[in-house]
Write a structure and sequence with these properties.
The chain is built from 14 helices and 2 strands. By secondary structure, it is an all-alpha fold. It folds into 3 domains: about 170 residues, no CATH class; about 100 residues, Cd81 Antigen, Extracellular Domain, Chain: A (Orthogonal Bundle); about 50 residues. Helix 4 packs antiparallel against helix 10 and helix 12 runs antiparallel to helix 14. Pfam families: Tetraspanin.
């Protein structure tokens, strides 16, 4: 009875383990698909950075690789829980160990070995190419593309210029674009920014500061990178925590299985039919590698009630004699009744009863 209760508990634990891995599988697929879709549907600024400079996609690649590893690990866990296979549970722990090592290395690489963001060199590129050396007369299409790019950056990040709004005043543009304006003061911006740049006074600079975004795009990009790094760090730590829990869960299941197998071997009990299914092994193998032949031998080795052929034969003969003498003497002899026949019948009957009892 205790073995059956323990077996039921182990099965329920395996079901919980499979359910957790199913949730992890769905979550990993969702994250990977969302990352791929969002990576393709980027705005014009990110697309331009990829084409002209070479966008650093280390974070996106790390998320995709982590999702793929989680998909493989969760599938192994689900199949192992379904087939109750210690072989797959050991593979599950091995994959988790590899994933944990990769997570630790990624965290060390991003936070200790390579902490500085590389976006400032992109901004330096824009500063050189767009604000100073780009000639709008000779390269009108390229100028328009760069200007549209800067408009997107300044609108989304709510910044103006690389280091200050005066970067625009000293550029070949000799103007401050409308994308530098705050949304609440667009009408005022139209009046302030339409004047001639060469005739800007200190009062004009003060008025411009009051209507444009207060921070520069270098600072805005650094904030964006810090937010992205924080998100990736939280994502990696969360996955690391989940993997540690699953590793402990898997190790606990293996201990339960080994303990259950030891008890079965000691007490010689049988599993039910479904609990012994294995993957990549014969179906007559039960948990822990105990073949069905060993179970049969263990059953044969159990102490049984010893049989006595002679006593069994005497008991059968005695029963046959009772059946033979069970017919009344008057029926056997027809209408004649032998005097003393009743006494002879009862004596024979008692003798047969003694023989049956002695045989038993």
């Amino acid at each position: 009875m205790k073995i059956r209760i323990r077996e039921v508990f182990l099965k329920k634990t395996l079901k919980i383990f499979a359910a957790v891995n199913c949730i992890l599988l769905i979550w990993a697929i969702t994250v990977m698909v969302y990352t791929l879709i969002s990576d393709r549907k980027q705005d014009r600024s990110v697309q331009f950075i990829r084409q002209e400079v070479g966008f650093d996609r280390t974070g996106l690649i790390s998320i995709i690789i982590s999702s793929c590893l989680l998909i493989v690990v969760s599938l192994i866990g689900i199949i192992g829980a379904f087939f109750h296979s210690p072989l797959l549970f050991n593979s599950y722990r091995s994959f988790l160990t590899g994933a944990l090592c990769l997570k630790v290395f990624a965290l060390l690489w991003s936070s200790v070995l390579h902490p500085n963001p590389i976006f400032p060199k992109y901004l330096k590129f824009f500063e050189v190419e767009t604000l100073y050396f780009q000639n709008p007369d000779n390269h009108s299409d390229m100028w328009k593309n760069r200007l549209m790019l800067w408009n997107d950056i300044q609108t989304q990040l709510k910044c103006c210029g690389v280091h200050d709004f005066q970067d625009w005043i000293h550029s070949v543009c000799k103007c401050v674009p409308m994308s530098c304006c705050r949304r609440s003061k667009i009408e005022t911006c139209k009046t302030v920014l339409t004047g001639p740049v060469n005739a800007i006074t200190a009062e004009d600079l003060k008025n411009i500061k009051n209507v444009i975004h207060p921070i520069d795009c270098m600072t805005a990009f650094r904030r964006l990178m810090n937010e992205l790094q924080t998100f990736l760090l939280i994502f990696a730590i969360t996955i690391l925590f989940v993997e540690l829990i699953l590793y402990s869960f898997c190790s606990h299941l293996l201990k339960l299985i080994e303990h259950h197998v030891k008890i079965v071997r000691r007490e010689g009990s049988d599993f039910d039919g479904k609990f012994g299914i294995w993957l990549l092994e014969p179906s007559d193998t039960i948990l822990g590698g105990i073949p069905a032949l060993e179970r049969e031998n263990s059953e044969l080795d159990r102490p049984k009630k010893h049989s006595h052929p002679e006593k069994e034969q005497n008991a059968e003969d005695a029963k046959a004699d009772m059946e033979q003498h069970s017919v009344f003497p008057q029926e056997k002899a027809g209408t004649e009744f032998n005097k003393g026949g009743e006494n002879n019948y009862s004596i024979a009957n008692k003798h047969n009863v003694r023989k049956i009892r002695s045989a038993e």
